[in-house]
């Protein structure tokens, strides 16, 4: 069960970059269709994340590890994929909010106000909530929280997908491989 020339980092960077590109394309599609604030369509990105994490970890297992991978290693490659994709999509978000859609923050605040109105909050409560929200509504701050959210939900996805990717082989050989590394 020798690891081929493809390291976990190379595979993680490759599949993470592919996932980042998929998330960027999906973000652009939502923007073009004027659906950027549609929560239901926003959840579709989790499906993309789960599919690419599963595919990337399975591909790494099959192509680099001879078809066997421990749960921990599957979780490791999955998190590399998620973190790389998170960095790429966060960088794109900063570009998108600063250059492509300069009204993004204004639209986000308007969408928040609409949600608060739907909840039946009074005008004073809405004004107070929006004033606090406006202080935090800077592309860099939103980008940081978006990255942290991607990392958190990506970790949950990685925990789950790693269950299905793991495939135990000869435990003696695995122990010897870990010692050699």
In short:
It contains eight helices and no strands. The protein has helices spanning 8-32, 39-42, 44-64, 71-100, 104-118, 123-136, 139-165, 171-180. The protein starts with 7 loop residues before the first helix and ends with a helix.
Can you walk me through this structure?
With 181 residues, the protein is mainly alpha-helical. It has one domain. Helix content is 81%, strand content 0%. It has eight helices and no strands. The protein has helices at residues 8-32, 39-42, 44-64, 71-100, 104-118, 123-136, 139-165, 171-180. The longest helix is centred in the middle third of the chain and has 30 residues, at 71-100. The protein is elongated. 23% of the residues are buried. Residues 1-5 have low confidence and may be disordered.
Please bin the fraction of helical residues.
over 70%
Task: Indicate the overall shape.
Answer: elongated
Number of domains: 1
The SSE order reads HHHHHHHH
Strand content: under 5%
Number of helices: 8
Q: Rg from C-alpha positions? A: 20 Å
Mean pLDDT score, rounded? 87
Structural class, by secondary structure, is mainly alpha
Number of strands: 0
Question: Main beta sheet, described?
Answer: none
First-residue to last-residue Cα separation? 12 Å
Which residues sit in consecutive blocks of at least 5 with pLDDT less than 50?
1-5
């Amino acid at each position: 069960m020798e690891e081929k020339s493809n390291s976990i980092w190379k595979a993680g960077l490759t599949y993470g970059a592919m996932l980042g590109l998929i998330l960027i394309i999906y973000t652009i599609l939502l923007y073009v269709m004027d659906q950027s604030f549609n929560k239901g369509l926003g959840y579709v990105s989790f499906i993309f994340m789960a599919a690419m994490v599963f595919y990337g970890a399975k591909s790494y297992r099959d192509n680099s590890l001879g078809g066997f991978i421990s749960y921990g290693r599957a979780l490791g490659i999955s998190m590399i994929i998620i973190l790389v994709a998170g960095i790429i999509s966060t960088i794109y978000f900063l570009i998108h909010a600063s250059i492509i859609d300069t009204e993004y923050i204004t639209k986000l605040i308007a969408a928040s106000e609409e949600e608060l109105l739907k909840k039946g909050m009074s005008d004073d409560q809405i004004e107070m909530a929006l004033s606090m929200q406006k202080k935090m509504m800077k592309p860099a701050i939103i980008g940081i929280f978006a990255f942290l959210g991607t990392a958190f939900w990506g970790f949950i996805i990685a925990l789950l997908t790693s269950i299905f990717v793991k495939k135990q082989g000869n435990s003696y050989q695995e122990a010897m491989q870990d010692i050699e590394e």
